[in-house]
Amino acid sequence: xxxxxxxxxxxxxxxxxxxxxxxxxxxxxxxxxxxxxxxxxxxxxxxxxxxxxxxxxxxxxxxxxxxxxxxxxxxxxxxxxxxxxxxxxxxxxxxxxxxxxxxxxxxxxxxxxxxxxxxxxxxxxxxxxxxxxxxxxxxxxxxxxxxxxxxxxxxxxxxxxxxxxxxxxxxxxxxxxxxxxxxxxxxxxxxxxxxxxxxxxxxxxxxxxxxxxxxxxxxxxxxxxxxxxxxxxxxxxxxxxxxxxxxxxxxxxxxxxxxxxxxxxxxxxxxxxxxxxxxxxxxxxxxxxxxxxxxxxxxxxxxxxxxxxxxxxxxxxxxxxxxxxxxxxxxxxxxxxxxxxxxxxxxxxxxxxxxxxxxxxxxxxxxxxx
Length: 370
Fold this sequence. Notes:
By secondary structure, the chain is α/β, with parallel strands linked by helices. The chain contains 15 helices and twelve strands. Helices cover 37% and strands 13% of the residues. Strand 6 (173-177), helix 8 and strand 7 (196-200) form a beta-alpha-beta unit.
């Protein structure tokens, strides 16, 4: 806690590490990449690690094991911790004020329950855009050029037998449904391949942004009708579940390539399989699935589908940035009552910024930062 000792020293107070009790922050899963940032974080907070699964977490909360804890860093890659469901949230300690997710997506968690509990949830958007866009381009290449089927044939000793001739990316029109950070990163990469980029958003971008990313705004149905490749980049919520189903596939070009890297339930998977079997969709490139990790048998059996096990952000550099931002979200909120990327809105708890002010009253410090 060198920052506090230095601050107090400037006021004539001589504090030792034993004099200071730092707020506890519970980590569900370790920091794997942002180790340097973790060292800085531990100057301000005491990091504790939960050992056990989702049920054990609930049990320990019920027993008061984590009473007094100020925050949680929720490692969503540790599947044993499950999700923030209503039951778990109801047992979180009253002291808890922030839960930081090192991920962009948060649809699996019960954010409403967290809001009702007065717990802020934060995420890490933006830092995943590049990795997701790279994944999209891999899927497009695998589908248009049939590289996936070619690779499978090679491993099975079939060489090119049964592999249809592919199509070039250049001059193809890619329609991006959702032109946020990921959509913009896709546009940059698609343009580099010589592709034309159309997009549809609930709100049209400024024309200067359109010019920067060389994209053209089109109507919703026009996107389906004119695109050679369709990429889904919208968040999952009540209004987007099964946003793409039979009616939408019927509006698409014959032989369209369909890509989804957002969330599986946005697409009616049974309708997608029917569109594949009927030839409306020539090939699908997917990194997410409606009932993952279970995958529809029709997708697994289709030779021209490129399928990934939800690994679009599995890159060291991206995970590093996600972890760094997750740590910064917790620190900023606990120190100032504000977060970089809040998912919900709650009344901020009393921040710790009074410890950083020049008017520190040691009698009120109580040798704790809580």
